[in-house]
Amino acid sequence: MLKNYLKEKREFIDNSIKEYLEELKYPPVIAEGMKYAVLNGGKRLRPILLLMTLELLGEDEEKGIPAAVAIEMIHSYSLVHDDLPALDDDDYRRGKLTTHKKYGEAQGILIGDALLTHAFNVITSENQKVASDKIVDIVRLTSQYAGVNGMIGGQMVDIESEGKNIDLPVLQYIHTHKTGKMITLPVEIACIIAGAEAKKKEKLIEYSELIGLAFQIKDDILDIEGDFEKIGKPVGSDTDLEKSTYPSIFGMKKTKEILAEKITAAKEIICSEFQSEKVKLFTDLADYIQNREK
Amino acid sequence: MLKNYLKEKREFIDNSIKEYLEELKYPPVIAEGMKYAVLNGGKRLRPILLLMTLELLGEDEEKGIPAAVAIEMIHSYSLVHDDLPALDDDDYRRGKLTTHKKYGEAQGILIGDALLTHAFNVITSENQKVASDKIVDIVRLTSQYAGVNGMIGGQMVDIESEGKNIDLPVLQYIHTHKTGKMITLPVEIACIIAGAEAKKKEKLIEYSELIGLAFQIKDDILDIEGDFEKIGKPVGSDTDLEKSTYPSIFGMKKTKEILAEKITAAKEIICSEFQSEKVKLFTDLADYIQNREK
Q: CB distance B124–A139 less than 8 Å?
């Protein structure tokens, strides 16, 4: 059930992204590069979470499309910049050349900048069914969670921690900020759009924080145990960059136990608040994050 | 009169920027780097234009502060990224080390990203006196003029034109997009905030386009005739990068004539629509752009 749902939603999101990027033509290298960077076979976990949450809250999915597309643009720009020579210096992502390897380094920087900037254009696109005061809240939250107090902060501490032995609080800061905030963001945006009551919102955010952390722990595991053919990038890059990870701090056995605990907690929290059959998507998604191979 | 006005407004803008950046503390390198990049003795032409236009339209200046600060953050991020090794590879700006020379290249990329992202947080800050539907319009316009269809587009074509003989339409595209859009932006935002009538808005935009073009032509002239001590960066960098400019296409004499024509036209347009004494700031500003030494 989840597998079909994810496939269907992934296609839906991809088509929505295409529609928003279609009108961009000039300069060709930026317009093409933006499409190349976003339309890359990604899992679309973040936009799907937004749509799932709207559905769970009984709200019209269509209202979430601009923000869902924008979040994926921001996620994609962050990958484009992370891959640059001055940062992780990666040549491949999901089995394809990284954006700067394909278009050049200056181009990679500007394509990333353009995606980030355009995301805010998409969130505020005209003729939406969402009220303006909610759109303002969405822009404020997005810029907070994607910025210095969110994703970029996590990325910076991650880079500065390379080659150092960091302790668990620092690793947790990296995980909750670099990955976590952008997984909580779509859930919180859906709550804004739907006007969710405080307790429902609280539980949804807790769920998103747990699966966000689980997602990152699983990433650390796949970097050691994963299959290049499946994950589309070289295995062992964390070790090469001397990055501290859950496995490097706790060992693999304990890391997998922690992963399982987070998944169980996420499922319990979501089931404690929501009883509709739609909650099954959320528990299945948690299981999927634990068991994914890429 | 203009000189005192600019000095007073520059201090006011600098203090406003400081207030918005003050709360940022962690990670220290990003928080400090953002301050370093923005609080660099810039002319603050763009935010001052926003405040001037509000005043001319009889609107409360305070309503424009968040957007004015945000525009300067976006302008600063664009300079940080332009200076990177993969782009213009500049070591100095306004007589100080460029951000990536001071903090490192990865840091420079992320500091730029953080400034761009935070700009949208500032535009949408809470407890504003501007209605939400206008804030949404401001975010949409800002992301358009700063993005692929604006500043970034101009920057990309500029880079791709290095070492090539480009024709006037391409040079004009570069100028109107790389510099022009971000000079029209504050004027247009002020019109949104003040609810300016169509004809006033049209004339203000025409004025901003003319002084924006004049500003860039003057930049090209200063790159040849300027004084390092005053402009704070090496003279002749356009020539080094084999960039086409107004002087390289028209020669210096004709370039100065074109500059004078744009300034005259800008002053005529603004005086044709506004008769209050406040219009003098606009004509003086046009003269200042023509005669500036840095």
A: yes
Whether residue A153 and residue B125 make contact (CB cut-off 8 A), yes or no, is no
B185 chain-A contacts, CB cut-off 8 A:
none
Give the whole-angstrom CA distance, residue B91 versus residue B84: 9
Residues of A with Cβ-Cβ distance to B152 under 8 angstroms: 30, 110, 113-114, 117
In chain A, which residues have their Cβ closer than 8 Å to the Cβ of B31? 148
User: In angstroms, how far is CA B264 from the centroid of its own chain?
Assistant: 21
Distances (CA, A) of B42 to B47, B89, B186: 11, 20, 16
Whether A30 sits inside 8 A of B125 (CB atoms) is no
Could you tell me the sign of the dihedral formed by the alpha carbons of B53, B57, B58, B61, in that order?
A: negative
Helix (H) or strand (E) segment spanning residue A43: none
**Which amino acid, one-letter code, is at B217?**
I
A153:B113 CB<8 A: no
A137 neighbourhood in chain B, CB within 8 Å: 124
Answer whether B116 touches A (CB < 8 Å).
yes
Residue contact B105–A86, C-beta within 8 A: yes
A152 at the B interface (CB within 8 A)?
yes
Q: Which domains does chain A have, with CATH numbers?
A: 2-291 (1.10.600.10)
State whether B160 and A126 contact (CB < 8 Å). Answer: no
Residue A46 has pLDDT above 70, yes or no: yes
Predicted complex ipTM:
0.95
Angle at A121 between CA B157 and CA B21, to 5 degrees: 90
pLDDT tens, chain B, 294 aa long: 789 999 999 999 999 999 999 999 999 999 999 999 999 888 999 999 999 999 999 999 999 999 999 999 999 999 999 999 999 999 999 889 999 999 999 999 999 999 999 999 999 999 999 999 999 999 999 999 999 999 999 999 999 998 888 889 999 999 999 999 999 999 999 999 999 999 999 999 999 999 999 999 999 999 888 766 665 666 666 666 677 889 988 999 999 999 999 999 999 999 999 988 889 999 999 999 999 887
Angle at B8 between CA B2 and CA B14, to 5 degrees: 130
pTM summary value:
0.95
State the alpha helices, DSSP H only, in chain B: 2-22, 28-38, 45-56, 65-82, 99-103, 105-123, 132-146, 151-161, 168-174, 181-194, 198-225, 228-231, 237-240, 246-250, 252-273, 279-291
Contact at CB, B114 and A147, closer than 8 angstroms: yes
Mutate to test the interface with A, among B73, B100, B110 (most CBs of A within 10 A): B110
